Amino acid sequence: MKLDQFLKWHNFVSSGGEAKIFIKSGQVKVNGEIETKRGRKLVKGDKVMFLKNELIFE
Q1: What is the pTM of this model?
Q2: Could you give all domains of the chain from N- to C-terminal order, each with its CATH number?
Q3: Phi and psi at residue 54, in whole multiples of 5°?
Q4: Which residues does 7 contact at the CB level (< 8 Å), separation at least 6?
Q5: pLDDT at residue 37, as a whole number
Q6: What is the CB neighbour count within 10 angstroms for residue 5?
Q7: How far apart are CA 17 and CA 48, in angstroms?
Q8: Which segments of 1-58 are extended strands (E)?
């Protein structure tokens, strides 16, 4: 699953465009690193941090 889809799936954002804005502005971390590519493919065990929420991709 791509990072932007993951944020939509968990209802953190209402659209892909909104996800793109948050990701491009450096507000999303994957495994502790700021991720600016919305098409980043998540793999099982990745930790996504967004707005003080941490979720593990399974």
Answers
A1: 0.89
A2: 3-56 (3.10.290.10)
A3: -120, 125
A4: 13, 19, 22, 23, 28, 48, 50
A5: 95
A6: 14
A7: 18
A8: 28-30, 33-34, 47-50, 53-56
Contact call for residues 54 and 9 (beta carbons, < 8 A) = no
What backbone torsions phi and psi does residue 36 show, to the nearest 5 degrees?
-115, 5
Alpha helices in 1-58 (DSSP H): 3-9, 16-24
How many angstroms separate the CA atoms of 19 and 6, rounded?
9
**Distance (Å, whole) CA 55 – CA 49:** 7
Look at residue 34 in the predicted model and tell me its pLDDT. 98
**Amino acid of residue 12:** F
* pLDDT tens digits, one per residue of 3-44: 999 999 999 999 999 999 999 999 999 999 999 999 999 999
Give the pLDDT of residue 30. Answer: 98
